[in-house]
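Following up on my earlier message about FE2/S2 (inorganic) cluster. Here are the inputs again, as you asked, copied directly from the submission form:
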Amino acid sequence: MGKKDEKEQVIFFCDGKKCGKYNKDPKAYLKEQIVDFGLEDKVTFRKMDCQGMCKKAPIFCLEPQDIWKKEVTVKKAKKLFEKHILPKSK
Ligand code: FES
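Thanks, got it. Here's what our run produced:
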């Protein structure tokens, strides 16, 4: 049993130089979805430093599932949310 304030899923987003340029839209989209579905207690966001995959920017990672996504667009973020985040939050 987790603590009350323990979130269940964490979306890590790379906020290095390169990813930071491209992650705004998918990040905004995911944040919006989380609010819309009332998942603020279950899903949290955390920054990570450059992951050395700048060519594939922007990089996102979902824990605890350990799912890594490269070249994340809003479309890919939508898939990630619907396929992995939403089902696990129920
Ligand atoms: S800035 Fe994200 S992998 Fe380098």
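One observation from looking it over: The chain has one domain: 9-89. Hope that helps, and feel free to reply on this thread.
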